[in-house]
Amino acid sequence: MKDISKTPAWVALTAHKRAIERVHLRDLFAGDPQRFAKFSLSLGNLFLDFSKNRLDGETLRLLRTLAVEADVAGATAKMFGGEAINNTENRAVLHVALRNRSDRPMLVDGKDVMPGVRAVLAHMGAFADAVRGGTWKGATGNLIRDVVNIGIGGSDLGPAMAVQALSPYQQKNLTFHFVSNVDGAHIADTLEKLDPATTLFVIVSKTFTTQETMANAGTARDWLVRALGADAVAKHFVAVSTNAAKVRDFGIASDNMFGFWDWVGGRYSLWSAVGLSLMLAIGPTQFGNFLAGAHEMDEHFRTAPPEQNLPLTLALIGIWYVNFFGWSHHAVLPYEQRLARFPAYLQQADMESNGKGVTRDGKPVSHATGPILFGEPGTNGQHAFYQLLHQGTQIVPADFIAAATSATETGRHHPLLLANFLAQSEALAFGRTLVEVVEAEPVAPALVPHKVFPGNRPSNSILLRTLDPHALGMLIALYEHKIFAQGVIWGINSFDQWGVELGKVLAGRILPTLEGGTAVAGNSSTSGLLDQIGRWRAKP
Ligand code: F6P
């Protein structure tokens, strides 16, 4: 396999970085009045301004050559063609089929998956309409009022993020809850508020073996059966899974199971039946708009030339900073309270995909891979960690995300929010020089260095017309393809997650000790902590 860091494009970028690192964003803007026009792109109702990055036309040209060296276009064709690009699990990666709104067949092993995709969407739609319209009733004849999504990772973060993001489109007589953590407090605190007669549980697990989800689902079932009896399970539990046998073993009838396929990765599954809670919230029509937004981005990513390609551009800018500047972090900063869970969602999408240390053929990588991603909604983050972004010694490239209009225009709030969105990226890019500090106001000499902002800190600004289902679909797909393109350039498999396995195995080994069984021989730290826990649990 080609080592991307040994290619001429990589070598050229290394040399180019040495030249451009001395240039300030102030100079780049001053030197080119057309900079914003040159370094911005749009697709429908999504606009990307990447002018506040430490790059010029030559940087982009070299980065695009890197993408050619890595054959991003070829890998994209393989993904859309249903090839088993998840090589360590021998699986196709075809979440794009789930939102394929065209008539084009999508093939896995020579078979068109689209009829199956449409059948599940129709099943979901009929169920969502029945619950929303009140024809689906609980075992005692009551309407469903509360929906509890039980899942973790990709079976939780996507639905939880999207239901919150699209709350203005939500059916008002339904309330949504998300339980993920194996900590019993999560399910207990949720159930405490609920009435079994009006509660629907959506158990979401690709494998239907995940410890946390099975523990929470079992506790929920016991709670319901205690109140309404075992026969009530059929009216209060549905499952989303690829594992029909395990769903049946749990006691959920196949009519109440919504399937998907092994070519849908957990963190790419929101578009499948894993999105059932979202469809219950916003209805089948808006769910269709959500899929259509992602499809628009898919078609763009697949067909747009590199110079106009939004996901590829974001991917290349990210590689520029991770690999050539050595910046290991990336902040995602939505100026949109309803996107509060978007950074957490992207953490899984990005870090579980590209947090890899070996190449697709198992050799240690010779360069850095995925960054540490974090974020909080603005303006809250401004009053928490932005100090470090502005004046700290680490440089953290950031994505600012906002919508020009809000579904909830409340007084001056949205202009205030947008003013902050614009101000922060400006402050990061241009900073405030010593001269500007002194000229701005009388300031004690000792304080001057504290008031200087170095600037030259890069960011992208992603602007939506408004946060609606279509735009959310576009936004998520934008990041999915960014992550994909980066994984291709780094030569890693973005679609497996072996790194989460060891902890699961060790937890299984440790659990018997905590439940009073024989102590496991382990290292002195684990044994010592187990002893301490044992002493405190014996005398709470
Ligand atoms: O954390 C590992 C993981 O496999 C994720 O990739 C996945 O989203 C999550 O666990 C949940 O898995 P499942 O949907 O099978 O319960």
Structure, explained:
With 540 residues, the chain is an alpha/beta fold. The chain has 22 helices and 13 strands. The strands form three sheets. A six-stranded mixed sheet has the order 1-2-13-12-10-11, sandwiched between helices. α4 (57-69) packs across α14 and α15 packs parallel to α20 (469-490). 6-O-phosphono-beta-D-fructofuranose (F6P) binds at residues 152-155, 205-207, 210, 213, 266-267, 352, 497, 500.
List keywords for this structure.
alpha/beta; 540 residues; six-stranded mixed β-sheet; 22 helices; Rossmann fold; 3 domains; binds 6-O-phosphono-beta-D-fructofuranose
CATH structural class of the largest domain: Alpha Beta
Give the termini distance in whole angstroms.
57 Å
Strand content is 5-15%
Structure summary, number of beta strands: 13
Spans of 5+ residues with little confidence (pLDDT < 50)? none
Oligomer: single chain
Number of helices: 22
Q: State the secondary-structure class.
A: alpha/beta
Question: What is the averaged pLDDT score?
Answer: 97
Quick summary:
With 540 residues, this protein is α/β, with parallel strands linked by helices.
Give the topology, please.
Blueprint: H1 8-20, H2 25-30, H3 35-38, E1 40-43, E2 46-49, H4 57-69, H5 72-80, H6 95-98, E3 107-108, E4 111-112, H7 114-133, E5 146-150, H8 157-165, E6 175-179, H9 184-191, E7 199-204, H10 211-228, H11 233-236, E8 237-241, H12 244-250, E9 257-259, H13 276-303, H14 310-325, E10 329-335, H15 342-354, E11 372-374, H16 386-391, E12 398-405, H17 413-430, H18 434-440, H19 448-451, E13 459-466, H20 469-490, H21 501-514, H22 524-538
Parallel strand pairs: 5-6, 5-7, 7-8, 8-9, 10-11, 10-12, 12-13
Antiparallel strand pairs: 1-2, 2-13, 3-4
The chain binds 6-O-phosphono-beta-D-fructofuranose.
